[in-house]
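Q: Entry one of two.
A:
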Amino acid sequence: MNNYRLLPVYVVAFFSLTAHAASDVAPVSNILYKNDCSACHMAYQPGLLPARSWQKIMNNLADHFGENAELDDTDRKAIMDYAMQNAADTSSFKRSKSIMKSLSSNDTPLRISETKYIKRKHRELSNKHVKDNPKVKSLSRCEACHTKADTGSYSEREINIPGFGRWDD
């Protein structure tokens, strides 16, 4: 039984707003997307890239960053629809909006780490923190340092760099 039915509407609304405020991007809510994408890497939230990027990524799965990630047409379409409907340019979440502000209208980044916003947010990190760190290796491994990345939260308070500890700006 859904316990929310027992709560007054304003209490449910408060919890929804609180959950929204705690996340920087909408958490992944599509099980097909989550299962298929996380088979090889973190299921990146669609709100980290604009729809035009997701469309380009999903239309080239035969060469998905050097790997063949092809899906049957039904699954590919369902995942692409989900990604595009929840992309940064359709999102009301704060980090998604910031990512969009950092892009020009003709930018179509294929990697989240290629966006100006993400580059700027990570500018203080050295190779020893990322590239030369065997537990991180790349900015594409968000979950290596962002302890709540899977929930859509990328707060600086939740950063723990393997081998270095909590990030203190």
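Q: Entry two of two.
A:
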Amino acid sequence: MRVTSDPDRPLADVSILRDEAPLGKTDEAGTARIGMRGNEGEEVLLSLKCPEKFKPAAGGALRIKLHRLADPKRVPEYAAICAPAERTVVIAVRSDGTNLPIVYLGRELARTDESGAAHVLLSAATNSSFELTLGTDEPHAARLRPQNPSMRFVVPDHDEILPFDQHFIELPEKKSKPAPRRRPLPEEDPGPVPL
């Protein structure tokens, strides 16, 4: 039996079970040599007990048909996968806004630089979702629209780089109007000014 966590990554300490009875455990190369008794052509159901932070792929059950070994030097090999329960994702942020906080669950994880770029590294359960927000509550970003844009991400079943591209429109700066000139009231009228 050969067990991997990702393609070409052997996984040690995986227990191979038949009816909850342990048959063997994988070594550092991800392999375990097991023997089973039964009738020719009998189908046997094996299960995997993966190490912590890993889970069996495809339900973790393996159906194997028993056959006599015609050549003892040629042992059949079966492959199985214990996939990581969590994956690492890098969110590559590109925006028009500089010095904007990237917020996750109310906590700032990073800020965009002078070019509007940032990177956020997260580990999360496979197939779970999370949301990141580009914060625009600070005074220097008050004229950016949309305000506080968010994007939802789903964690794939492999490590990945995910894009978060956000373009903003900047509202023009409000010009302060001069105070209107007040016309004097009749009792305030100073009358003709002598020359």
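A: Comment on entry two: The CA atoms of residues 40 and 130 lie 50 Å apart. The radius of gyration is 33 Å.
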